[in-house]
Fold this sequence. Notes:
Elements: H1 2-13, E1 38-39, H2 45-53, H3 57-64, H4 70-78, E2 86-91, E3 97-107, E4 121-129, H5 138-152, E5 157-161, H6 167-175, E6 180-181, E7 188-192, H7 198-232
Parallel strand pairs: 4-5
Antiparallel strand pairs: 1-2, 2-3, 3-4, 5-7, 6-7
Helix pairs in contact: 1-7, 2-4
This protein binds coenzyme A (COA).
Amino acid sequence: MADSLLSRLAQWTGLGRKEPQPGGAEPAKPDRPTVFVKELSPRSRRHLMRHFLALEDKDRLLRFGSKLSDEMVARYVQNIDFARDTVFGVYDRRLRLLGVGHLAFAPRETSRVSGATIKPVVAEFGVSVSAAARGLGVGTKLFMRASMRCRNADVDTLYMHCLSSNKVMMHIAKKAGMEIHRDYGEADAYLKIQPANSATIFQEAMQEQVAMLDYIVKANFKALLKWGARVTGLGGKPGGGADQPPKS
Ligand SMILES: CC(C)(COP(=O)(O)OP(=O)(O)OC[C@H]1O[C@@H](n2cnc3c(N)ncnc32)[C@H](O)[C@@H]1OP(=O)(O)O)[C@@H](O)C(=O)NCCC(=O)NCCS
């Protein structure tokens, strides 16, 4: 009941669209679950840590530009400035993070692509999705949400440390109708973002509300499972195991 209501809300706010809108031509992928992208707070650091530590070396290399050790990952998570940056996450039913997008804002002068804009701030985006949840649209939704945040924050340049050999990421950006510029080196890609309008501002606010509702439903469900396990004496960790893709 709550799930189906959330799915309807998601469709209404654009969250439930299976693929990004700017390119417009992508057909819906009916077998894919609805993905809710939620803005994270400092309270999510433990979840973030677990997500990043589970990434294999090759994925850490793609995500961070180098094979960070566990200690460096921990330091990275501890140092995320939630007041300055925006971190988005996609949770599964057990409230494990399936995907994370970190949108960091920095003054233009300090950016590797400083010549690409006259705006005072440039955004840098890094994204990762748990191996078990790939190919379901999670990365796409995180990317779309981050680019919408840029639009609404009057940031027109989105930088990504992303090799051209990263076909999946290239595919996601192109699917969103974005041209990938590489004037500053092979690994330094940037995208130009459209200006905001009243619809994008409304849509972002609604998407966050729906994602928050989804999170509350999942949190209550998890608490109920725990309580049920205690009462019945079955104990054990509910659903402990590999990450499951989100269900709509
Ligand atoms: C890049 C990443 C975030 C994508 O996440 P994801 O949830 O699997 O992405 P999605 O499911 O939204 O989209 C993947 C798309 O790539 C397509 N794809 C998969 N393999 C591909 C390939 N070899 N070449 C081109 N496209 C490919 C899929 O078909 C899908 O497209 P579709 O939606 O049109 O069918 C994930 O693979 C990841 O975490 N990689 C490691 C870290 C990384 O590379 N981060 C990016 C650098 S910042």
